[in-house]
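Appendix C reproduces, verbatim, an entry submitted by the partner laboratory led by Prof. M.T., so that reviewers can inspect both the input and the predicted structure.
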Amino acid sequence: RSRADLRADRVQLLEAELNQECPKHRSSRSSGGDVARRVLVSVAPAVILGCLGFAQISDALGSLTYVTSNPSWPIVIQFARELTYGAFVLAAAVVLWKKRIVRARDARWKAAAVSLTGSFLLVGARFVPAGPVVWSGSLRTSAIGLLVTAVGSILALAALSSLKWNFSIIPEVRLLVVSGPYRWLRHPMYFAELLMIVGLALGGLRIVYLVGALCVLGLQIYRIRLEEQLLSSTFPKAHQEFVTRTRFRLIPFVW
């Protein structure tokens, strides 16, 4: 073999070592199963999130006149929350729509089912009868809940800004993100979702939402374990350093 070939092999091995990824052959053709999976875990969620995000931002902008004429702090915070959450959902839809190279993926259908259910269960719960009231929030708890959901929407947008094109619904690995909110929590986007769930519950709670929220919490904990297993196998050393430096997975000072 020529020196040029040997040099090219050394460069390839060096890049693989730096990326902690063994060289592998990838087919340029997509099978029918790959197309179906992409539609299920990327295209369909992108369409749903895009519609939700557009509707959220449209509602927020539609209330702008009311906000400017009644600039009390609950109204302003609610407007900011709706606008921030709408921006987060719309940006997530854009990321999912774009076809991206994946370094590693949990290809089991169980992982896809858990991820999709955890992401959209509470969205679907809006279309069924809410059931009896479990908790009726007071004005004070509703105001606190509004603040908590606003913080959650801001954190979700900040986490997505750090992830950028690495965001996905199912467990997938492109890069190991350790900047932004990921300096303090290993899964800040799930914590942001938890804040929004708790914030909404403080305003009032019905049985369907309670059951759905508990199911989502269990599913997200399972997703965290799936994602960490995938990250650990893909980036053994870097992920261990990340775990050592960023101790808590989901809730600061708890777990």
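The chain is about 70% helix and 5% strand. Additional entries are available on request from the coordinating office.
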